TrEMBL record, chain A:
It is a multi-pass membrane protein. It is found in: Cell membrane. The chain crosses the membrane at residues 21-40, 46-66, 78-94, 100-120, 127-150, 170-191, 221-240, 260-283, 295-318. Its main location: membrane. This is Branched-chain amino acid ABC transporter permease. Keywords: Cell membrane, Membrane, Transmembrane, Transmembrane helix. It comes from the Bacteria.
TrEMBL record, chain B:
The keyword Phosphoprotein does not apply. This is Branched-chain amino acid ABC transporter permease. Belongs to the binding-protein-dependent transport system permease family. LivHM subfamily. The keyword Protein biosynthesis does not apply. It comes from Paracoccus acridae.
Length: 340, 285
């Protein structure tokens, strides 16, 4: 009797790259820097950074939906506004500590997302998108008619007066750090997990992924709910800083415009694209925002051009030339020589 | 009596929505794409019509005669320059392209016509009404409904009876098989969009006669068209027409209950249909 010994080849899976390590270190530094803002930035700067962090988070949520799960939504403002309103009701009407209420208010998008998805997933691809818009409109109209959220007149968060400016700055800075940590850090962790592997398989080909045992329906549902909660966090934090909320501002379709612009121009289905896109949007908004309508014409035309000629966006063009991802999620198989 | 009146007004309102919905049903049926700028095109055509009427002193039906060919040309151009590049299995490119177009169009109109609401002077027909058994029925809404029925019938006949209609249906069911039999899908697509936007030429005149238009109104028209198509059931033009009727009645009844509930009642009926009969009220499962 002879045995053929089949030694498995010595392999190693390499997942991190040099560029990834640098980016990860910068990311940690950025989160610490955000949390420490009260000691180095003025209130105006903190508010501006808060807005920037909200854009990053909303765009990344849209990216998870459209870029990975294949669910194009133009109605994420539904959950932004719902959580914003939940915060105001909890803190202002029921007297819950507003900083605690930010977290409690996330339950509202979590609970609302489930029936929304169960209804909307029946709609075919492009119709799904318009369906999400209808849901956002329903939320806006309901808020405009509900007397206990003060209907169309909206609410103010006057309980914030109980806290000093410095205390509020600390809260805003910590929420900035949290937004980035959850949206970027959380997505990165998720994409590196086995769910991420399934998600990327699904992005490339849903049918093939399903045949490999990926539960496409459940994964899509999970992503939809997670994106709703993520957008909810943005809403709660954003309107806590705004101190005012009313139906048109809470359920403003501007959020979708911004998220789509950022992700498409930056580069869909990549975290790097979201960061690049946000930076472009933010700089453009600072310098050209004063031109109002004509500035939005340019944003619109740019979105059309990207959809027509450069679907992978700026990051797609960069990564085609230089293979140096900031948030590497690929697995490299490294064969090791058998040592005697 | 009050509810019967709401029903009548709802059906008449549905005539308006049917004119938005036909084009959307046609484009989705043939190309599986949704043009997000559908409503903005209605507004653009309305504003062009209003400016034409004001500068040349044209009556509403002369404006219509000018707008419809313009709309057909616009649709053809839209398909040739943008949509033909984004048609495909992946819904993302077409959605994003038309979404960007919608954003650009809306703000461009804001630049040209300012954010004010305008309307088209109708030379009296917009305020004339007929009284039947205690119910006042506006003459204009009746004309709108008659046009809607005629357009739906015409589109249905074209799809069923003409050579071009057969080419459209062939391209809709299997584009590769259709091109093997000598149909050029790009031309078929361009004609479908030209017809879809052409119908919006009629809708634009009626919309600006019936009420006012402002550059930011396009989103609402897109949503109504979409709801009508889904309520009625995808895949047939008569489905879209009947869906528009249901939507119009829902809004009119909701409006009678409380003026704040009109549009919301339409959305709720849409969501109920989606929950209980996702293939649409008149669609086949």
């Amino acid at each position: 009797m002879t045995f053929v010994s089949m030694m498995p080849p010595q392999v190693q899976i390499r997942r991190q790259t040099a560029s990834g390590r640098i980016a990860l270190a910068l990311f940690v530094l950025a989160v610490i820097g955000l949390a420490a803002m009260p000691w180095w930035a003025k209130t105006g700067t903190i508010r501006m950074v808060l807005e920037l962090c909200c854009y990053v988070a909303v765009a990344q949520m849209w990216n998870l939906l459209a870029g990975y799960a294949g669910l194009v939504s133009v109605g994420q403002q539904a959950f932004i506004g719902a959580a914003g309103y939940a915060l105001f009701v909890l803190a202002q009407t029921f007297g819950v500590n507003p900083f605690l209420a930010v977290f409690l208010s996330l339950l509202v998008p979590l609970v609302l997302a489930v029936p929304c998805y169960l209804l909307l997933h029946r709609l075919d691809g492009p119709y799904f998108a318009i369906g999400t818009w209808v849901v956002a409109e329903v939320f806006r109209l309901v808020a405009s008619n509900l007397s206990w959220v003060n209907a169309g007149a909206g609410m103010s968060l006057s309980v914030m007066k109980d806290y000093s400016a410095f205390q509020r700055n600390i809260a805003m800075s910590l929420f900035c750090a949290l937004l980035i940590l959850v949206s970027i850090g959380g997505s990165y962790r998720f994409l590196r997990s086995r769910f991420g592997l399934a998600l990327i398989a699904m992005r490339d080909n849903p049918v093939a992924a399903a045949s490999q045992g990926v539960n496409v329906r459940r994964l899509r549902f999970m992503i939809y709910v997670a994106a709703a909660v993520g957008c909810g966090l943005v809403g709660a934090v954003y309107f806590m800083a705004q101190l005012r909320i009313n139906p048109p501002s809470a359920f403003d379709s501007m959020w979708s415009n911004i998220a789509i612009f950022i992700v498409m121009v930056g580069g869909i289905a990549s975290i790097e694209g979201v960061l690049i896109g946000t930076l472009i949007y933010f700089v453009a908004d600072r310098y050209f925002g004063e031109y109002g309508a004509s500035y939005f014409v340019v944003l619109g035309v740019m979105t059309v051009l990207v959809a027509l000629y450069a679907r992978t966006g700026i990051w797609g063009m960069i990564s085609a030339r230089w293979d140096a991802p900031w948030f590497p999620i690929r697995r490299h198989l490294v064969l090791e020589r058998n040592k005697p | 009596m009050q509810w019967f009146d709401a029903l009548i007004q709802g059906v008449l309102l549905g005539g308006m929505y049917a004119q938005y919905a036909l084009g959307m049903a046609l484009m989705f049926g043939v190309m599986k794409i949704v043009n997000v700028s559908h409503g903005d095109l209605v507004i653009l055509l309305s504003l062009v019509g209003i400016s034409l009427a004001a500068s040349l002193g044209l009556g509403p039906f002369t404006v219509m005669a000018a707008l419809v060919p313009l709309a057909v040309g616009l649709g053809w151009l839209l398909q040739r320059t943008i949509l033909n590049r984004v048609v495909g299995d992946d819904p993302l490119p077409s959605l994003i392209a038309t979404f960007g177009l919608s954003l650009a169009l809306q703000n461009l109109m804001m630049q040209i016509w300012s954010a004010n609401s305008r309307s088209l002077p109708g030379g009296g027909i917009e305020s004339r009404s007929i009284q039947i058994g205690g119910i006042y029925i506006g003459l204009l809404p009746v004309i709108v409904l008659v046009f809607a029925i005629a357009l739906t019938w015409g589109l249905d006949m074209m799809l069923k009876r003409t050579r071009f209609g057969r080419a459209l249906r062939a391209a809709a069911s299997d584009v590769e098989a259709a091109s093997m039999t000598g149909i050029n899908p790009r031309t078929v697509y361009a004609s479908a969009t030209a017809i879809a936007v052409g119908i919006l030429g009629f809708a634009a005149v009626f919309q600006s006669l019936r009420s006012t238009v402002a550059p930011a109104d396009g989103g609402a028209q897109l949503i109504y068209a979409f709801e009508a198509v889904i309520i009625g059931g995808m895949g047939s033009v008569w489905g879209a027409f009947l869906g528009a009727m249901v939507l119009g009645v829902a809004q009119a009844v909701g409006f009678r209950i409380d003026p704040g509930l009109g549009v919301l009642a339409g959305h709720i009926v849409f969501l109920l249909v989606l929950a209980t009969r996702p293939q649409g009220l008149f669609g086949r499962a």
